Amino acid sequence: MDLDLAGKRVLVTGASRGIGLATVEAFLAEGAEVVAVSRKSTPELEATGATFVSADLLDPAAPRRVLDTVLANDPRLDVLVNNAGGGDVAEADLLDPIGGSGAVWSGVLALNLGAAVEMTRAALPALSRARGAIVNISSSSARDPRGVPLSYAAAKAGLSAFSRGLAEKLGETGVRVNVVTPGATRTAILTSPDGYVGRLSASMGIDQETVLAAMPEQSGMVTGKLIEPAEIARRCSCWHRRRCPARWAPTGPSTGASSRHRKRPADPSAPRARGDRVLRPRQHRVGARRSIVDAVFGADLQCKPVPERLAHPHRRAGASWPRA
Question: Residue 88's closest CA among 117, 60, 58, 129?
Answer without folding.
Answer: 58
